Structure formats: C-alpha cells, structure tokens
C-alpha cells in the first residue's frame, strides 16, 4: 500500500504540473495571437497601446506562474519523498520534549522554510513584474515591514489555534476531526468579524468617505437595497499598488464597505455606485453565505478523510515520513490535498463566474447597467486585464467571466 500511494502521489504531482504548464502555454499563445488588434467591442475605449500593455502583462504573469508551479512542485517533492520533513521531525524530537511542543515547533519550522524559499519569487513578482508594468508602489522597507507584521500576526493567532487543534486531536478520540472542525469553523467566523476593525488596519489606513455627494448617492443605494453597514471607508491601497478595487467585509452590524483610493480616482460617481451595486449583489444573492457554507462543508469532508488516514502507516511512509504524529499528519495532508484536488479547480471557477453574472444582473436592476459597463472597461484598462484570455485557461482559472462575455451580458440586461 505504501508504494502504491507514493506512486499515486507522484503521478498526481506530475499530472498537476503538466496541466498547469499546458494551460499557461495555451494562454500565452492565445494572448500573443490577439495582441495586434483591440477587440471590436472595446475599440472605442481602449487604445492599441493599452491593449498590448495588458497582453504583455498577462503573458509576464503567466510565465512567472509557470516558473512558480515548477518551483512549488520541487519544494513539495523535497519536503515529502525527498526526506526533508522526516529529517526535520527527527532533529526536533532530539531537542524538544512532548508531542504538543514538538508539533508546534515542526509546524513553525515548515512555515519558516516554505516562506524563506518562496521569498525570492515574491520579491521578483513585486519589484520586477509589478514595477515593470507600472503597478507597484511599495518600497523595500514597506515590503519587509509587511513581512514582519504578517509573520508576527500569524504566530500570535496561528500558534494558539494550532495548539488547541493538536490538543483536541490527542484527547478527543476517534471523533477528533468533528471537534477540530467546530473549532476551525468558529475561528473562521471570528476572523470575519474581527478582520475589518482589528487586523486590516494593521496594514492599511481606513478613513470615512469624505465626498458628501458620493456618500449620499451610496446611502441612497443602500436604502433601496436594504443593506445596513457600519460605514463607507476609503483604503489607502495606492501606497502599495495602483490597482483599483472595492469590497465589503464583516457580517451583521459590523459590515463595512471599502473603496480603494485608486478606484475613486478612476471612476465617476455613477460608475462607483454601479460597482458598489455589484458588490451588494453578492450579499443580496447570498453568495457570501453560500461560499462560507461550502467552505465549511469542504473542511468537514477533508477533516473526516484525515481522520481515516491519521493512523495509517502507509499515508506517512508513502510521503517519505517514517514516524506518525498529529502535527505531521496535518502538515502532510495540507501538502497533499492541493495536489490531488487541482483538477477540480474548474468547478469552483464555474460557480464563481455564475455568482459574478448574478451580481451583475442585480446591479443592472438597481443602477444603470451602462455605468457598470463603463466602469468595468475602465478597470480592465487601468488594471491591464487582458481582453483576450485563452478560453480553456479562463474556464479553468478565472473567477470572473471573460471581459467580452461579461460586457455582452450587461448590455443585454440594459436593453
């Protein structure tokens, strides 16, 4: 069983990597083949130079993604069948007594090693690709500060949570996976509630919207749609990137609407209202609740599977680990799951695109659909989003519909 599982794992890595490389190669070829001409429906709003800039940006990101995929596969192989995890666990066992402390140390060590290995890629993406195409606004000092804050925050939140999970796994008997799921679900809901007011302000500044006319327009929209929030805020996204965005976060009375300051500079008041109506559409169509329920169901299923594997010697040995353990089981499972589930990505993408169409339809009912079309075209242009993605690559990866299809749906709704 050990050898069979090892070969299955290696085959899954190979299939996943080949699939990623093939999809990326298709996308780069398709974008390059359509680089010379702006699609007809965008010809009046996007210049050839802007279209080519977006095409080059998409190809650069895709090429980098392929390099990252090869790198990630190599790291997975080194950690598992390459014996790094096993050697690390043995070394820590010699210096740290107790399964709980040892498990925490192992998880922390794996996190640090993975972060250190991926750091050069992150630096290249930020300071090479994003800077080359005019989007990066971060300094190296800011990058390092974010890295340190993120690490400290992760340790402050993650280590106590992991300690609780490992403790439950050790004392709860065969149904430990159910207790861990309850804790994990409660933690996720708590983070949704606390993120807007306690975590996000550690990285960005959030100020109340000062434009009285725009605020009144937004409040009118909120009244029409029956949406109550804690307020409308502007985030200083421009200090890190020139990309624009908008979102709402939290739940219950803690919900708040957030606009990137870059978005407010890009769009008119009518367009901002339409974009917000789209975001509200996700709430009114209960997409957020559906995604949370789906995520909870998925995590329950995964934890149940881990509950069946945790005492199976072949699970550990097939992944290059000689000694079982609760922390090791969690680490191996989180490494293996993405490898086996990657081919299912299109199903998630399809559901997400369906939700985007529904949110667009809601926005078209509450505001002028033409204003949302105008806003989207500006966002495609200013964010250098390719207008000509490869159809197969798009259906596999993209959480939003391709630009041409999305605009066509909105124009149909406006008629």
Keywords:
mainly alpha, Zincin-like, 415 residues, four-stranded mixed beta sheet
How would you portray this structure in words?
- The chain has two domains: 2-199 and 289-341, no CATH class; 204-266, Metalloproteases ("zincins"), catalytic domain (Zincin-like, 2-Layer Sandwich), CATH 3.30.2010.
- 73% of the residues lie in helices and 4% in strands.
- The protein has 16 helices and four strands.
- A four-stranded mixed beta sheet has the order 1-2-4-3.
- A hairpin with a 6-residue loop joins strand 3 and strand 4.
- The longest helix is centred in the first third of the chain and has 34 residues, at 99-132.
- The termini are far apart.
- 27% of the residues are buried.
- The mean pLDDT is 89.
Gist?
With 415 residues, the protein is mainly alpha-helical. Helix content is 73%, strand content 4%. The chain folds into two domains: 251 residues, no CATH class; 63 residues, Zincin-like (2-Layer Sandwich), CATH 3.30.2010.10.
């Amino acid at each position: 069983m050990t050898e069979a599982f090892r070969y299955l794992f290696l085959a899954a890595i190979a299939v996943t990597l080949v699939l990623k490389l093939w999809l990326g190669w298709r996308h780069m070829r398709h974008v390059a083949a359509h680089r010379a001409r702006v699609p007809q429906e965008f010809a009046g709003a996007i210049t050839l130079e802007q279209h080519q800039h977006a095409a080059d940006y998409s190809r650069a990101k895709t090429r980098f993604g392929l390099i990252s995929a090869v790198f990630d596969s190599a790291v997975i192989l080194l950690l598992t069948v390459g014996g790094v995890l096993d050697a690390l666990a043995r070394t820590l066992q010699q210096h740290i007594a107790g399964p709980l402390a040892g498990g925490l140390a192992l998880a922390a060590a794996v996190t640090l090693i993975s972060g250190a290995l991926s750091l050069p890629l992150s630096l290249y993406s930020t300071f090479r690709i994003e800077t080359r195409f005019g989007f990066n606004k971060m300094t190296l000092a800011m990058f390092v500060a974010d890295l340190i804050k993120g690490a400290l925050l992760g340790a402050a939140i993650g280590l106590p949570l992991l300690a609780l999970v490992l403790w439950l796994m050790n004392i709860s008997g065969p149904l430990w996976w159910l207790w861990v799921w309850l804790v994990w679900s409660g933690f996720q809901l708590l983070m949704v509630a606390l993120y807007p007011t306690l975590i996000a302000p550690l990285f960005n500044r959030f100020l109340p919207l000062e434009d009285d006319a725009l605020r009144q327009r937004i409040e009118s929209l909120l009244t029409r749609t029956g949406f109550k929030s804690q307020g409308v805020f502007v985030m200083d996204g421009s200090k890190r990137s020139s990309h624009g965005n908008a979102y709402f976060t939290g739940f219950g009375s803690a919900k708040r609407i957030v606009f990137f300051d870059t978005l407010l500079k890009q769009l008119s008041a009518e367009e901002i209202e339409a974009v917000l109506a789209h975001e509200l559409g996700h709430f009114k169509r209960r997409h957020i609740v559906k995604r949370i329920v789906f995520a909870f169901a998925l995590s329950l299923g995964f934890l149940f599977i881990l509950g069946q594997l945790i005492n199976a010697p072949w699970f550990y040995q097939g992944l290059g680990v000689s000694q079982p353990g609760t922390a090791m089981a969690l680490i191996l499972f989180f490494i293996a799951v993405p490898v086996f589930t990657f081919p299912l990505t299109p199903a998630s993408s399809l559901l997400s695109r369906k939700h985007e169409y529904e949110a667009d339809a809601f926005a078209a009912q509450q505001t002028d659909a033409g204003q949302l079309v105008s806003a989207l075209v500006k966002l495609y242009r200013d964010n250098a989003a390719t207008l000509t993605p490869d159809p197969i690559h798009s259906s596999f990866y993209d959480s939003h519909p391709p630009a041409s299809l999305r605009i066509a749906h909105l124009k149909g709704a406006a008629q």
